[in-house]
Fold this sequence. Notes:
mainly alpha; 58% helix; 0% strand
Amino acid sequence: MEWNDDRHNSVARETMSDDPTVSKVDETYKPWQFKPGEVRNPAGRPKGTRNKLGEAFIKAMHEDFEAHGPKVIETVRTEKPDQYLKVIASILPKELNVNTNALGEMNDDELAAVFASLRSLADTFAAQVGRAGASEAESTEPAQDLRPVH
Length: 150
């Protein structure tokens, strides 16, 4: 069956009321639908009530934490370590993306710079170990003069 646009338009025109007391809003919305600006429960919750309650609660919690927070955290940590760990776990992000292959994202020039820095660091360390003597070379403490390369 082929659709006739002229017939569709004439049907649409017939359904629109010519009565001036019937607005387009009344024709557009069904009786059970909310119309723009219509309030069905005028005695309902005032605007902002929920927000005010939430703000008051957060303010009270903040004030309490400012006064007692560090002591309470210490008490929970020592007396209820399981609850302490639950709080920490709830604060952590649900998904943690750890990049274990930082070298894979570097270009050749960046890799060459990292290897040159490592070679320089190794040479400096070897020189310090050689000067310090055999007794300090066996120590597990790293040399204080060495700084990590970023």
